[in-house]
Design a protein that fits this description.
Largest sheet of chain A: 5 strands, parallel
CATH class of the largest domain in chain B: Alpha Beta
CATH architecture of chain A: 3-Layer(aba) Sandwich
Helix content of chain B: 40-55%
Distance between the termini of chain B: 48 Å
Helix content of chain A: 40-55%
Distance between the termini of chain A: 15 Å
Shape of chain A: globular
Number of domains of chain A: 1
Number of strands of chain A: 5
Strand order of the largest sheet of chain A: 2-1-3-4-5
CATH class of chain A: Alpha Beta
Radius of gyration of chain B: 22 Å
Shape of chain B: globular
Oligomer: heterodimer
Structural class of chain B: alpha/beta
Largest sheet of chain B: 7 strands, parallel
Strand content of chain A: 15-25%
Order of helices and strands of chain B: HHHEHEEEHEHEHEHEHHHH
Number of helices of chain B: 12
Number of strands of chain B: 8
Number of domains of chain B: 2
Bound molecules: guanosine-5'-diphosphate, magnesium ion
Number of helices of chain A: 5
CATH topology of chain A: Rossmann fold
Radius of gyration of chain A: 14 Å
Strand content of chain B: 5-15%
CATH superfamily of the largest domain in chain B: P-loop containing nucleotide triphosphate hydrolases
């Protein structure tokens, strides 16, 4: 009778840009039966992690547009660890140069999705990570 | 899932424990019954405020501003924001937090977004359990935002002590379309977006509707307020009025009555579900036979139910 739903936080840090990509992904995740907590633009690492904890999400999808946000990702990872919430997995979407991708891999993030990724791949990735 | 840990965590104010407990309720985890029955004795302190109204009226924005005002008054806050689940995919986009992003790092505010899902035991009961968890966690005020569109949303406010119905200007002829049910549950009306044209007209229209709708026997006159969540005007008046309504309930012994009503409602809902599970099970041969007879037209639904119940009736000697 229990009904375990996958819950995903979609957040867009930073001050620039639009959230079109994040919205497309959010809708695809909803259509795959996920519950998507959508927070909109301008999220700080602290806001993202606190929201993830309150909402008890299984996964956080960060939509990133510029390299300036690269400092934020390690901060999110650190904050998750500080809050003993490292079981929440992460993926990054956006235009990520190869050297940044390597840096992300080093801190344990293997879900990096560039523009034009089929949303099916993102869904499959989250399902596998969460394992529900 | 470790019930003992979650239970202790809630009483100690551990946010992760609260979050995990809410998920257990939402996922209808079999063990959450035990958790809830232990949590119950720590509830009853919070002022529960329902905020409902049509989509786009500005409920979330208003809840954001109300929460800030209550924080200035030194109160801790829980917010439950309910949005519809897609009946086709079972998924949902829960976007109420977009309007509340300033609240997310205040350690004295806990916000939870909920999809309506296809809750077997009723959405109202799941929401009620989540409210009670926040109450036991120690929140002074619990605000529940729901879209005032259907019966299940109206049921949710059964759990609220004070119900605020939010509307916006420009309703025009649509005023008739406001669910009659909303007039019966409203303790306070707010016309939000008072920065837009037509606000006074909406106030008058709602006042006329209120005069025509059946009065409850108590003395509370339902006020029709104006606010602009965007410009942060009318928020103090709204929170003052909410506080005044709570005082009114307490002074007239109505709060105890409301609490009893909600306990009774929850008891009956739980009993219904338990009786159903206990008495009828589609995996049993005899229950399959009842369904077969129903399908073939051999018996009608009344007889089918009577057949099930007759098994449990003690024969009189
Ligand atoms: N002009 C104006 N717009 C507002 C006001 N409050 C909210 N809004 C806008 O109305 C839209 C819906 O608001 P939201 O709080 O999400 O409404 P909800 O669906 O009732 O929760 C958003 O674009 C808000 O920015 C207000 O007081 N004035
Ligand atoms: Mg809303």
């Amino acid at each position: 009778m229990s009904d375990d739903k996958i819950r995903v936080l979609v957040a867009k840090p930073g001050l620039d840009g639009h959230d079109r990509g994040a919205k497309v992904v959010s809708r695809a995740l909803r259509d795959a039966g996920f519950e998507v907590i959508y927070t909109g633009l301008h999220q700080s690492a602290e806001q993202i992690v606190e929201t993830a904890i309150q909402e008890d999400v299984d996964h956080i999808g960060l939509s990133i547009l510029s390299g300036a946000h690269m400092t934020l990702v390690p901060r999110v990872v650190d904050l998750l660890r500080e809050n003993k919430a490292e079981d929440i997995s992460l993926s990054i979407g956006g235009i990520i140069p190869d050297e940044d991708k390597e840096a992300l891999n080093k801190i344990g993030i293997d879900g990096v999705f560039g523009p034009g990724t089929d949303t099916k791949d993102i869904i499959a990735f989250i399902k596998k990570k969460v394992g529900k | 899932m470790n019930i003992e840990e979650l239970y202790k965590g809630i009483l100690e104010g551990n946010r992760r424990a609260l979050a995990k407990s809410i998920s257990a309720i939402e996922d209808q985890h079999p063990k959450c019954e035990e958790l809830m029955s232990r949590v119950y004795k720590h509830t009853g302190r919070a002022h529960i405020i329902g905020v409902t109204g049509p989509p786009g009226a500005g409920k979330s924005t208003l809840v954001d501003k109300m929460a800030k005002e209550f924080r200035d008054r030194g109160r801790t806050i829980g917010i439950v924001a309910v949005d519809p689940t897609s009946p086709f995919t079972g998924g949902a986009i829960l976007g109420d937090r977009i309007r509340m992003s300033g609240l997310s790092t205040d350690k004295h505010i806990f916000i939870r977004s909920m999809g309506t899902r296809g809750h077997l035991g009723g959405l109202a009961r799941a929401t009620s359990d989540v409210i009670r968890l926040m109450d036991a966690f120690g929140k002074d005020v619990v605000i529940v935002e729901t879209v005032g569109a259907g019966q299940s949303e109206v049921d949710i406010v059964e759990n609220a002590h004070t119900t605020v119905v939010v509307e916006m200007p420009g309703l025009g002829d649509d005023i008739q379309a406001i669910k009659a049910g909303l007039f019966e549950i409203a303790n306070i009306f707010v016309i939000n977006k008072s920065d837009m044209e037509g606000c006074d007209r909406s106030v008058r229209e709602i006042q006329i509707m209120l005069e025509m709708s059946p009065k409850s026997p108590d003395e509370w006159e339902v006020p029709v307020l104006k606010a602009s969540a965007r410009d942060n005007t009318g928020i103090k008046e709204l929170t003052d009025t909410i506080d005044r309504h709570y005082e009114y309930l307490k002074q007239n012994n109505l709060l105890e009555e409301l609490k009893y009503k909600s306990l009774k409602y929850n008891f009956q809902e739980i009993l219904k579900e338990k009786l159903m599970d206990f008495s009828f099970d589609e995996s049993r041969k005899e229950d399959q036979n009842i369904l077969k007879s129903l399908k073939s037209g051999k018996i009608d639904p009344y007889t089918a139910a009577e057949n099930v119940i007759s098994r449990f009736k003690v024969e009189k000697k």
